[in-house]
Design brief:
Helix content is 20%, strand content 30%. With 261 residues, it is of the alpha/beta class. A hairpin with a 2-residue loop joins strand 11 and strand 12. Helix 3 packs parallel to helix 4.
Length: 261
């Protein structure tokens, strides 16, 4: 069976690996704007039930309950203590993970890794865990960061513990009050170097307009720096793992991805 990854915008990735269908942080509509999952929902629906949904944290642009209600997921993997927010029909499919804990699902191993991010869920007045995930299957390993700020120590430790082929890293503007818990262009590139990843794919951009500003400017900045590990996926673009890891680096042809979806 063909194995591939498709970028659906923001932090939503649709992945096929070892015969499993996975979705990361799926959102169809959030309070800050419209996301892109709705455009691809009919196609995704043909693959129901989705084998695994990875939820990095409880912010509404990552944990969108209306979308989760629509998706028939066999397993929902999320941070410890956050399954209480899931729709009742998904509670039985929830697998909560703490930092550095793992679960095997079919032919893949999912390991939760720390994230430098503050998460909460209104109306609860307390912070909740945020995680990234390492997914390993045979010779393939990828890191889905969800949302995180820069930490040299954190990325170095993750890179030492895992062999990472592809790092899906969130990117955003270099605003001083956001950089504690978000990656700007240069910090995302530094993070990829510390991780030792073969390929860096920017995520957390493309469809959701938020207080963090125009993410297209961040992508343009990354293209200006043009690190050798960069692969820029258009919103909606699907590519095989082999093409993603071994293909040519992003360049001038990536510019169309900056147009509004």
């Amino acid at each position: 069976m063909e194995e591939w990854v498709q970028f659906l915008g923001h932090a939503t990735l649709w992945l096929r690996i070892k015969g499993l269908s996975l979705l990361t942080d799926p959102i169809a509509k959030v309070v800050w704007g419209n996301a892109s999952l709705g455009r691809f929902f009919n196609e995704i629906e043909k693959s129901f039930p989705i084998d695994v949904v990875l939820i990095s944290h409880t912010h509404r642009d990552h944990m969108d309950l209306p979308t989760l209600r629509k998706i028939k997921a066999k397993r929902v993997v999320l941070p410890k203590g956050t399954s209480r927010f899931l729709p009742p029909e998904l509670m039985r499919s929830a697998i909560e993970l703490g930092k550095w804990s793992s679960v095997r699902i079919g032919g893949v191993k999912v390991t939760a890794v720390p994230s430098k991010h503050l998460s909460w869920r209104s109306p609860y007045p307390f912070f909740l865990p945020a995680l990234g995930f390492i997914v390993e299957s045979g010779d393939l390993s990828f890191y889905f960061a969800g949302d995180t700020g820069f930490s040299e120590r954190l990325f170095k430790v993750i890179g030492e513990r895992f062999k990472i082929d592809v790092a899906f890293l969130p990117v955003g503007p270099a605003l001083f009050f956001l950089r504690w818990y978000h990656l700007c262009a240069r910090d995302a590139i530094r993070a990829c170097d510390l991780l030792g990843a073969k390929v860096f794919v920017p995520i957390h951009w493309g469809v959701v307009k938020s207080m963090s500003g125009d993410s297209a400017r961040t992508i343009k900045k990354i293209l200006e720096i043009s690190p050798p590990t960069l692969r820029l996926l258009h919103v909606g673009e699907r590519v095989s793992w082999k093409e993603l890891i071994e293909g040519e680096r992003a360049g001038g042809e990536a510019a169309p991805a900056l147009r509004s979806p």
